[in-house]
């Protein structure tokens, strides 16, 4: 009976949407909100909260450089059909946003989570995202407190667009926020287990700018230049000097950004080179989830810096079933 009522309510909503044509949300044919997202962490967060009432299409493939990603011609259709487009923002997905603004239904909202979660005064500018270039560091999602804000914003938006399923969105959000809270606490424990002198990060890609201040670490250097090329010899020498002086035992890279220079820097600074951190690529099944990505990151990072990687051993990285 409840199902039938839901269905009738949804049909009424759909009819109403058609009547208003461009000024109301577009629903997919099967009655689900048709959500288009960009990077995998956001795709995964939205799917966990939307559950069975949404169809989510992430257009930035896992393992691609999201900063230089250009949408494909085939993404036009996907963007045109979207009920809503949910992106990170803070200039991360500019080519995709430009295309979306050209082709989307005029009534379709583009929700920029990062711009909603932080005020401009809280934006970070640093190594690869210098203030003078005007593009803030966009990697908010490596700070779990900010991911919790993302989750709240997504929940409120889905409820506003699809009020019939309010209870379901609220329930999923509550479960997901509880999981995030546990993850957040575990990350604090990981960092506490690292000897104080080693709570320093040298990464190739500059993605820990919001992570470090929350969890009590310092980003000493991020090596990738702002144009995503390789650093010049002078910069390499100065980075090696900094690493030697700081005494960090390990420096970090990722598979998405292979860099020959990192191996050289590691050799000459006598730090271990660990090239397995991830800033937006999710790990393979069974933990193909944003939480799984963070568990993987914390295991790698904690171990390499001399801490106890069991800090994340009890984290449930599974997605909410739907
Ligand atoms: Zn990145």
From TrEMBL:
GO cellular component term, pick one: cell envelope
Record InterPro entries: AdhesinB (IPR006129), Bact_metal-bind_prot9 (IPR050492), Lipoprotein_PsaA-like (IPR006128), ZnuA-like (IPR006127)
One family name in Pfam for this protein: ZnuA
Localization of this protein: Cell envelope
Molecular functions (GO terms): metal ion binding
Keyword Transport included in the entry's annotation: yes
Source species, domain of life: Bacteria
Major site of localization recorded for this protein: other
Signal peptide region: 1-28
Record GO biological process: cell adhesion; metal ion transport
Keywords of the record: Metal-binding, Signal, Transport
Protein family (similarity comment): Belongs to the bacterial solute-binding protein 9 family.
The protein's name: Zinc/manganese transport system substrate-binding protein/manganese/iron transport system substrate-binding protein
Native source species: Nitrosomonas oligotropha
